[in-house]
């Protein structure tokens, strides 16, 4: 029997179609939920295997995006896949940027107000996701606006920016293997969660937060026996 794909099934973050019931909504979601190492998970600096430099390198550049509201969040989708990362010598192209409020990953028992996910895919259709956490401020913080070649035109659904603006300058991060955090929650997924929490101006967030009516964070999942590593940096381009 043909599996029903994600875009054909209504799901959300509460009620009978919330996270506790995703695996019941269709066979495809059930198959994804069967992967034993689900995401997100709690992360702790004291409970990790620390290492120096991870085999991760960034090759990001300014490119054209459009924003699309679907499946309970707003997505920035590149017209071309110019930006990419190399992980252990394998190229993963950036395919999507979206957000969760509040954050899905929790570091040292503290949940932030906002988490951006930068989703990448290699030629084998395997995913790699970067997680960047933010707190919000009414008076300061990162303000994404039309400057230095950036364009944020939400009325016409067109943006030009370098996706590196979502990443902290200091690239220390947690690394673990998990799953997607939205249906079909399949794995394995290489996860990199930066531990530097940046501040974003609330005025920018409200431009797209109004498109999402409810909180869209999946609850924490069991760590089980998986290994979580911490890296102080990444390879230089």
Automatic annotation (TrEMBL):
<comment type="similarity">
    <text>Belongs to the alpha-carbonic anhydrase family.</text>
</comment>
<dbReference type="InterPro" id="IPR023561">
    <property type="entry name" value="Carbonic_anhydrase_a-class"/>
</dbReference>
<feature type="domain" description="Alpha-carbonic anhydrase">
    <location>
        <begin position="9"/>
        <end position="232"/>
    </location>
</feature>
<dbReference type="InterPro" id="IPR001148">
    <property type="entry name" value="CA_dom"/>
</dbReference>
<dbReference type="InterPro" id="IPR036398">
    <property type="entry name" value="CA_dom_sf"/>
</dbReference>
<dbReference type="InterPro" id="IPR041891">
    <property type="entry name" value="Alpha_CA_prokaryot-like"/>
</dbReference>
<dbReference type="GO" id="GO:0004089">
    <property type="term" value="F:carbonate dehydratase activity"/>
</dbReference>
<dbReference type="Pfam" id="PF00194">
    <property type="entry name" value="Carb_anhydrase"/>
</dbReference>
<dbReference type="GO" id="GO:0008270">
    <property type="term" value="F:zinc ion binding"/>
</dbReference>
<protein>
    <recommendedName>
        <fullName>carbonic anhydrase</fullName>
        <ecNumber>4.2.1.1</ecNumber>
    </recommendedName>
</protein>
<keyword id="KW-0456">Lyase</keyword>
<keyword id="KW-0479">Metal-binding</keyword>
<keyword id="KW-0862">Zinc</keyword>
